[in-house]
Amino acid sequence: MSQLNYALVIAARRDAAAALIGGARSLAHRVGIVFAGEDMLADAADVGFRLGTAGLPFSAAASAIVRLVAEEQPDLVLAEDSADGRLVVGALAAATRTNPLAGVSQIAVEDGRVVAKRLVYGGSAIQTVAADGPAIVTASAGLYEARSGAPCGDIRDVAVEPPEGVKFLGRSAKAGTGEDLSSEKIVVGVGRGVGSAAGLAAVRAFATVIGAGVGATRPAAEESPWYDGRRYIGISGDTIKPNIYIACGVSGQVQHMVGVNQAGLIFAVNNDAKAPIFQDCDYGIIGDVNRVLPELTARFDRA
Ligand SMILES: Cc1cc2nc3c(=O)[nH]c(=O)nc-3n(C[C@H](O)[C@H](O)[C@H](O)COP(=O)(O)OP(=O)(O)OC[C@H]3O[C@@H](n4cnc5c(N)ncnc54)[C@H](O)[C@@H]3O)c2cc1C
Questions:
Q1: Domains plus CATH for the chain?
Q2: Which end of the chain is more exposed for a tag (fewer CB within 10 A), N or C?
Q3: Which atom of ligand 1 is the closest one to the Cα of 236?
């Protein structure tokens, strides 16, 4: 695989920045990172652009990032596939009259061009697209391993003007639902089969005992009144790469599994022996999550 000259990563979260810098390193000789906030790291990047967003949301920097990209002329803009990343990429694509490649699952460089793959038609087909010029891409940070490296010695400050016509009133932290799973080594997946707030509490108790994060399928997150998070894993949600994924009451449809199929080991608990998840997991328990999980929790608690 050939390499590009210069890739510019855009990330609002520290974990995502580290992973996308790792990905960009495999694609380009020179890597820059556009970030905001004092606690962000630009380690392993050749150059860091620190946005002066103090007190403003990341998306307020969209115009400043458009100007920066025009000056820097990277061959690839690799943005985190998040609300912030997609918004910035939308502004960049409009300014440069380029089609952004959103939500890609694989990026390669062939003959100096960016070639990206993404799942379409609900995960039943793979679309391959090649960019003829500079490429603007969003990808889940979970696709890549974070790369450690020397602290970046070239950090440049980028001024950000508050956007006109919109007044940012403030932000407040949402009670932790452990939704950012990109750095979790173990993830317990909540499917519709978990079925109730009591079932979810049993999942969370189990996850606490084994030190896991908790994620969900799309219907569990979007349609189940007992689920308290909004993000979900899968083709239209997050891609994760934990060492262990434990699917609880998850049927195992392809649209969910594409988000976890890079996990090291997949375990499943499902009361239907014919559920597709049993074709995709390494170890399975046929049983009711409401009985199996409390028992597992008690055993791990004693261990
Ligand atoms: C375009 C498109 C995009 C989509 N994107 C996504 C996506 O990104 N992510 C995603 O997750 N889905 C996505 N979906 C939906 C996907 O197709 C599936 O419908 C979804 O993943 C199923 O979620 P689930 O496993 O929670 O629910 P279900 O399919 O309803 O499965 C529930 C499972 O729980 C089991 N169960 C029931 N009770 C118990 C119990 N007491 N104990 C143990 N097991 C029990 C059942 O046997 C069943 O297998 C998408 C669909 C489309 C069409």
A1: 4-158 (3.40.50.620), 186-302 (3.40.50.1220)
A2: C
A3: 8
